[in-house]
Amino acid sequence: MTNAHDDYSLVVERVFAAPRERVFKAWTEASALQRWFRPLGCAVTVTRLELRVGGEYQFTLHHPDGETSTISGRYMDIVQPERLVFTWVSGGTHFQETEVTVEFIEQGVQTEVRLTHSRLADDDMRQLHQNGWSCLEFLGDAL
Amino acid sequence: MVNYLSPPLDAIFSALSDSTRRAILQRLARGEATVSEVAEPFDMSLPAISKHLRILEDVGLIVRQKEGRLHHLSLSAAPMKNATEWLEYYRQFWDEQFDSLADFLATDTTEGEDDQRSR
C-alpha cells in the first residue's frame, strides 16, 4: 500500500519455485494465462494478445452468473524474461488507464515476481487529492 | 467487501469530482449547517446548490435532518472508507492471482525447454 497520497500504487512480491523463463511465459502466453489467471475467480478467455510494444491484449472474464466483462490494455515494454509493462483498463479501474509493471528477478532456480500496479487513481481521485484531500481527512475524523 | 464494479464507489468519485461539492463538504467538515448557510459563500442560485446537495446526499456523503422548515446538513464519512479501499482491493486481487500462479507453476511442468531444470 502506498504511504504517500500522491502515489497511488501498490507493490506485490512473491518468490515462485520455477525458473524465470517459465514464469515469464506464464504471463505472456495465452494458453498459460488461461490456465492460471483468475480475476475474481472468473475463467478467462484471452481474446487478444499481441506481445510487442504497442500491441494490445484483451481478456474476457466469464462471471458465474453468465455475464462477461473485460480487462484490456497495451504492452508498453517487454524485456524477455525480465520485465513486462502494460496498461490495464477494467471496470475495477472505472475504465481508466492504470499501469502494471511485472519484474522477474532470478533467484537461483527460483524467481521473484515484483508487481507494481500504478496510476491507481482516476482523474477524479487526483483532483480530489489536489483540491480537497485535507477535506477527506476531516471526513475520517468525523466518523 | 468491495465489489468489482462498485457503483457506489463510482458515484462517490463522481460526486467528489466537482469543486462546488468539495467546498460544501469542506464547509460541513467544520460543523453542521443549514442549507442557506451552506449556500451563502456561493454565487449560485439556491436550486443549483440544492442539486449539488442532492448528489452528495445520494451517495451518502451528507445527511439532512429536517427541523420544521430548517434543513440541517452534516457530514457522513462512511462512504470515504470505501474509497480508500481501492488500493487494498487491488492488493488482494494480485495476491489471489499470485496464489493461482503458484499453483499453476507447481502443477504444469509439461511445456518449455526450461522445465528441464525443474525435473
Overall pLDDT metric of chain A? 82
Order of helical and strand elements of chain B: HHEHHEEHH
Strand order of the largest sheet of chain B: 1-3-2
User: So what's the overall shape of chain A?
Assistant: globular
User: Segments of chain B where pLDDT lies below 50 for 5+ residues?
Assistant: 1-7, 112-119
| Global mean pLDDT of chain B | 78
Strand order across the largest sheet of chain A: 1-7-6-5-4-3-2
Proportion of helical residues of chain B = 55-70%
Structural class of chain A: alpha+beta
User: From the alpha-carbon coordinates, what is the Rg of chain B to the nearest angstrom?
Assistant: 24 Å
- Give the helices and strands of chain A as they follow along the chain: EHHEEEEEEH
Number of strands of chain A: 7
Q: What's the tally of helices of chain A?
A: 3
Q: Largest interface, per-chain counts?
A: A-B, 49 and 46 residues
Distance between the termini of chain A: 22 Å
Give the number of helices of chain B.
Answer: 6
Oligomer: heterodimer
Beta-strand fraction estimate of chain B:
5-15%
Structure, described:
- The complex is a heterodimer of chains A (143) and B (119).
- Chain A is an alpha+beta fold.
- In chain A, 25% of the residues lie in helices and 42% in strands.
- Chain A has helices spanning 20-28, 30-36, 123-142; strands at 10-16, 43-49, 56-62, 68-79, 83-90, 98-107, 110-118.
- In chain A, α1 (20-28) packs across α2.
- The model of chain A is unreliable at 1-6 and 127-143 (pLDDT under 50).
- Chain B has 119 residues and is mainly α.
- Chain B is 57% helix and 12% strand.
- In chain B, strands 1-3-2 form a three-stranded antiparallel β-sheet.
- The longest helix of chain B has 23 residues, at 85-107.
- The model of chain B is unreliable at 1-7 and 112-119 (pLDDT under 50).
- At the A-B interface, β1, α1, α2, β7 and α3 of A face α1, α2, α5 and α6 of B.
